[in-house]
Design brief:
Elements: H1 40-86, H2 90-104, H3 108-120, H4 123-134, H5 147-160, H6 164-176, E1 183-189, E2 195-201, H7 205-210, E3 213-214, H8 221-228, E4 232-234, E5 254-261, E6 264-272, H9 282-301, H10 314-324, E7 329-336, E8 342-350, H11 370-373, H12 383-393, E9 397-408, E10 411-424, E11 427-434, H13 437-452, E12 454-460, E13 466-468, H14 470-475, H15 499-510, E14 516-523, E15 529-540, E16 546-555, H16 557-594, E17 607-614, E18 624-631, E19 637-644, H17 649-666, H18 672-686, E20 692-700, E21 705-711, E22 717-720, E23 723-726, E24 746-749, E25 755-759, H19 771-782, H20 789-798, E26 808-815
Antiparallel strand pairs: 1-2, 1-6, 2-3, 4-5, 5-6, 7-8, 7-11, 9-10, 10-11, 12-13, 12-16, 14-15, 15-16, 17-26, 18-19, 19-20, 20-21, 21-24, 22-23, 22-25, 25-26
Helix pairs in contact: 1-2, 1-3, 1-5, 2-3, 3-5, 4-5, 4-9, 5-6, 5-9, 6-9, 16-17, 17-18
């Protein structure tokens, strides 16, 4: 359509002498005047402008005429209501309508729409009333029409329309354009669940042609409303990857609503906005659903081209189709209440093959309602829901192994059947095939063979015929039309190393006539090698003569390679266990060589030293516990107990490094704190990133004083008479934790008979007790008086409740 504006009314009228003017006379009557050179373009443009203005004016007049016609239809309907209610003439009704409109201060069309709303009380009325209720002070619409007027005008236009395209134009012009919509599409649903563009407005002819048919299964925006059987809305079509009509030009908001009557969905109303919109209030949804109902009545009255309802009445065709079927079939028709709402389906016809799951005769089912004949079909997701959905959407349904339940004398009777439901116009064809037990077991066997990769065979030794099932052809990689391979020919298809095993297998079957099994590598013609296991048995007659061999092939490739991988894993695990065992035995021997469980007595005046070392019970838990008791050149005695973190050969070698390093450092005469500082440096630089705890003490026999320090280790226990106490917890981090570490030092004075216990955590640690409770238990055990120091240490080990299976080291000194 041209957008050229009409020429102004005050345009200059050409002079009569101007040969290009409208009144110019030419020499040849009836021929076109030829304008002078250089003026044809200007005059041509003026002529086109005047023509475009005329066309645009005529179009406006046509649209206005259509609007007046729709308005007149609305007013005439209101007049008819007044004639019926007031029993007056048409002239009096028109006068009454004008008088009432004048007194109410509204236009005649507004009053007519209000009269229709109050009289009809339908969904259009609900939509208009909801709009008024939800907007307390509604602003005046830009076109001066109320919601009721727009909806009633659209209804009048739809009722007077000759086809669905005219209905779409009426809905867009009167009801949807004031809401900002610029295009509308009315889709009709075919029996195969495809969508046909029955009517549209606002789209280009090219776009409408491209979308005239949408095959079933194509997920468009309109089909979403069909699948959900509900209103569908998106504020921005460009944000969803769903194809739809006009998606390149109209990328804004979009709405779709099912158009149905009497429980059946006839089509979909799809509305397009050019720009994105926020979430709309419920009133918009109700207005659109009311318009969708108008479309449903139109689609029911004016079916889309190609709709089988035009030329094929369902109740005639389906009866003939059902009678030709070899399966039980029912023809169902909708059963509606007085409000034209679907409440059930009536059995219109029962074919001759009908077989009721409960064994009832066909005459008891014919003419009955579906829920009366099969009340348990009303369960959620049951047969009634399936039939109702097929009737609403037109999308056929087919499923295997559906349980059909009938209720006879309050007894449930179940039957398994294959069900197919399809819609033909307004009728439903319901077909079921009740499954026999033999067929069900045969199908179960087929599934078992498929899942187990098993194929069966039988070889007739009298005729030489070989029979394979389809699964066996698939195992061998052969088409079902290929010639089956006899057992005697299997070596030609097997790996050469397996021919001897196949020969023994055949000898057992044919000569010994016994059940046999064999596993071999099958080399298929497609180059794939599979591991196959054959289980077979001979078939003998009454006189013990061999007639045939039957059995099965199974593809055990996956199991074979799993067993191979498992065997390799077992070998690697056994080798690893052997290596770990050798390392632990070496660590144990190393520990015993450096620190024997019962060391030689210490030659020290006025001091008795006893040591107990209890290794872990498990060879895999060889720890790094160590001790030392050494008389230094200064006659002072070095006493220490330590524990290297970890287990195994690494912990044992690290323990030896620290023990020997501390011995060498102690000869310098430095105090315990300084010795631990140096030993921390050794741990950081001369070991492989280990950490350890140590208690280091120097005892001076001359003064009976002991200086001690700790590096993250448990403090010693001091025993005097029947009193036991733990020494104070001096500051000192464990060895190997920090490069710059400082250690505190303390000094205690011992008396004759005093005893000190240095120990590792393997003596007290328990999994289910805190450290404090374990230390209290140690103090209680050490408090008992014993005859000798050795007996005291033995008692500590005997009453130890530790359960961590760790090494235990205890050093006891007693002043004598």
């Amino acid at each position: 359509m041209s957008n050229t504006a009409p020429p102004p009314e005050t345009s200059h009228r050409p002079d009569a002498d101007d040969p290009t003017g409208p009144h110019a006379v030419t020499g040849n009557q009836g021929a076109a005047a030829v304008p002078p050179r250089g003026e044809s373009a200007l005059d041509g443009a003026s002529a086109v402008g005047r023509l475009a203005a005329t066309v645009e004016r005529l179009r406006r007049e046509i649209r206005a005429a259509h609007a007046r016609a729709d308005g007149r239809a609305l007013i005439e309907t209101a007049k008819g209501i007044l004639i019926e209610r007031l029993h007056c003439s048409p002239t009096e009704a028109a006068r009454q309508l004008a008088t009432l409109a004048d007194h109410a201060g509204v236009s005649v069309m507004e009053l007519a729409a209000d009269i229709l709303d109050r009289t009809a009380a339908d969904r259009l009325t609900e939509a208009a009333c909801d709009f008024v209720t939800e907007t307390a002070t509604p602003a005046a619409p830009p076109d001066g029409k109320t919601v009721s007027m727009r909806l009633r005008t659209a209804e009048s236009g739809a009722g007077a329309a000759d086809d669905t395209h005219a209905v779409a134009r009426s809905l867009l012009e009167h009801a949807l354009a004031p809401l900002g919509a610029t295009a509308v599409a009315v889709w009709a649903i075919a029996p195969d669940a495809s969508l046909t563009l029955a009517g549209s407005a606002g789209f280009t002819d090219h776009e409408a042609t491209r979308w005239r048919h949408v095959p079933p299964g194509v997920a468009t925006f309109a089909r979403r409303a069909l699948a959900d059987l509900d209103w569908t809305w998106t504020p921005d079509l460009s944000r969803i990857a769903t194809p739809s009509i006009g998606q390149h030009d109209l990328t804004g908001a979009r709405a779709a609503a099912p158009a149905g009557t009497g429980g059946r969905i006839h089509g979909i109303l799809e509305i397009c906005w050019p720009n994105p919109l926020p979430e709309q209030p419920p009133r918009l949804r109700r207005q659109i659903e009311a318009l969708a109902e108008l479309c449903a009545h139109t689609l029911e009255t004016h079916p889309a081209p190609g709709d089988p309802t035009v030329t094929h009445p369902a109740t005639v065709d389906l009866v003939g189709i059902a009678d030709c079927l070899h399966d039980p079939a029912l023809v169902l028709v909708p059963h509606e209440d007085e409000h034209r709402q679907l409440v059930d389906f009536r059995v219109h016809h029962v074919n001759a093959r009908f077989l009721d799951p409960a064994g009832r005769p066909a005459n008891l089912i014919h003419g009955a309602l579906l829920l009366e004949a099969y009340p348990l079909a009303a369960t959620p997701g049951g047969l009634y829901d399936i039939v109702e959905r097929v009737h609403a959407t037109g999308e056929s349904y087919r499923a295997e192994s559906v349980t059909l339940t009938a209720l006879v004398d309050d007894v449930r009777l179940d039957a398994v059947a294959d069900v197919a439901v399809s819609r033909h116009a307004n009728a439903i064809l319901l077909i079921w095939r009740i499954e026999h037990e033999a067929a069900r077991l045969a199908r179960l066997l087929q599934h078992a063979q498929r899942l187990g990769r098993i194929g069966g065979f039988e070889e007739d030794l009298v005729t030489g015929a070989v029979t394979w099932n389809d699964s066996l052809f698939a195992l061998h990689g052969l088409p079902t039309t290929a010639v089956p391979v006899a057992l005697a020919d299997l070596p030609n298809h097997a790996h050469p190393d397996d021919t001897a095993a196949l020969a023994r297998f055949l000898h057992t079957l044919v000569h010994h006539r016994r059940h046999a099994t064999v596993s071999f590598r099958l080399e298929r013609t497609d180059g794939v090698t599979r591991r196959i296991r054959i289980v077979a048995e001979p078939v003998l007659d009454a006189e013990d003569r061999l007639l045939a061999i039957r059995g099965a092939h199974q593809d055990v490739s996956a199991q074979h390679w799993t067993e191979v991988a498992l065997a390799a894993t077992r070998d690697r695990l056994a080798h690893s266990e052997q290596q770990v065992g050798e390392q632990n035995r070496l660590a144990r021997q190393l520990q015993h060589a450096i620190m024997p469980p019962t060391p030689a007595p210490l030659d020290a005046e006025g001091l008795q030293v006893a040591v107990r070392y209890r290794p872990a019970e498990s060879d895999t838990a060889v720890g790094g516990d160590w001790y030392d008791a050494l008389v230094l050149p200064s006659k002072k005695i070095l006493l220490c107990v330590g524990d290297v973190a970890g287990h195994g050969i690494h912990a044992a070698t690290s323990m030896i490094v620290l023990r020997n390093a501390l011995r060498g450092l102690a000869i310098t005469g430095a105090g315990p704190a300084q010795l631990l500082t140096w030993l921390n440096t050794v741990t950081l630089h001369l070991t492989d990133q280990v950490t350890a705890t140590v208690v280091c003490a120097l005892y001076d026999p001359g003064t009976r004083t002991m200086r001690w320090a700790r590096a993250g280790h448990l403090p010693p226990v001091w025993i005097r008479d029947d009193t036991t106490q733990r020494l104070s917890l001096l500051d000192g981090p464990l060895l190997g934790a920090f490069a710059e570490a400082g250690y505190a030092e303390d000094e205690i004075h011992l008396a004759l008979g005093d005893t000190l216990l240095l120990y590792t955590d393997g003596l007290i640690e328990r999994r289910d007790h805190c450290l404090e409770s374990s230390l209290d238990q140690l103090l209680a055990t050490a408090r008992a008086i014993t005859a000798t120091l050795d007996e005291r240490l033995d008692r500590l080990l005997a009453h130890s409740r530790a359960d961590t299976d760790d090494d235990t080291c205890v050093v006891g000194i007693q002043i004598t």
